[in-house]
Amino acid sequence: MKRIPHRYGSLILFALLMLGIACSPAVSEESRVRALRLLAATPLIDGHNDLPWALHARGIGDLADLDLNQIQDELMTDMVRLRAGGVGGQFWVCYVPTVAAAKGTAAWQASRQIDLIHRLVAAYPETLVRAQTAAEIRTAHRQGKVASLMGMEGGHMIENSLSILRNNYRLGIRYMTLTHSDNTDWADSATDEPVHGGLTPFGEEVVREMNRLGMLVDLSHVSDDTMRDVLRLAEAPVIFSHSSARAVADHVRNVPDDILEMVRANGGVVMVNFAPSFVSPERAVARRGEFDAYKDAMARFPDDRNARTAVMEEFYEAHPAPPATLSQVADHMDHIRRVAGGETVGIGSDFDGISDVPEGLEDVSKFPDLVVELINRGWSDEAISRALGGNLLRVLAAAEEVAARLQHERPPSTATFAALDGGAVAVP
Description:
Layout: H1 9-22, H2 29-41, E1 44-49, H3 51-57, H4 79-84, E2 87-94, H5 99-103, H6 106-123, E3 128-130, H7 134-142, E4 146-153, H8 162-170, E5 173-177, H9 201-213, E6 216-218, H10 224-233, E7 239-240, H11 257-266, E8 269-272, H12 276-279, H13 281-286, H14 290-300, H15 305-318, H16 326-340, E9 345-347, H17 367-376, H18 381-409, H19 417-421
Parallel strand pairs: 1-2, 2-4, 3-4, 4-5, 5-6, 7-8, 8-9
């Protein structure tokens, strides 16, 4: 496939940003210039992008079949729009449905997704570069490239094995969401009936081992009790890779104020999600039951994307709701800053993992417009820089420091699910 040269990283980035913001309505010259300066100075780090699963769901395993150096209208992400959006760091998400756990194929499917992400980064070296540390993210940003990290969306993919957890870290996974839409055998999900009351003893050991490795503990998708258990136990800052504020939009996937205060004490970061049902107060109410519909569709049609889409379209038709907006996304950022402080705010778009988007945040090229909105709301340069990526860089560096200490203090854990929770799995 034909490649677009990208030898002049920062100059091209600046030009694309200027073009993108200039095309946005009602943007003052002063705000535009300020936004460009901030994006050039600080890597905008998006905590959650589901492009790998979007490619898999479309049957694209051979990346030569799709040129992401051209705008792809069916996706929210491509190399052109990443550069136009000023993205400096991206967590590409390894995701497989929770039904894979029941089949015993979750770890195997996850390995395929990890391989796809590695191949994706290697296929676009003019735009993407692999990164695993805070220092490597900063280096990539200076080079005008998108630092590419990996997150794993769901603890079901370790199949109750700390050995698999460690191997995933060796492969480059730098955060793991403890659950997805269903409970794991050792942690409760926000969108399932609670059975553990938070973390089990093995779940606590998973958190301890993640801290020892330097893998960020991601609390998006988990129940409130799981959040509280982790925040009492964690020795390193946690993240919410793609969650918003429950006080703004009353959705179970969002973070309540008492937990925001715990995150502040922990030193963690809440990366605001763009999913309209998490963003809009009206949609949060109108679309209650959305996750149940999604889980039902996944259970009935695990290998038929078109059938799942049809199920969800029926649900949305039966539950009409107004669109979410860019301004509402900023409302969540304002609220988290007010309750937990500016050191706790981040961005976790969920692009290509959501079927709908807020007006004004349609794809990865639109991040500069969010920066302008924060400027117009009176955010200082320092506060915006922290929210763009400074907070995540701090959290990642702190996790690295904690891991270095813990690796001197204790060896890898050989605890098993069977020994701690009485389960059938006996491997470490």
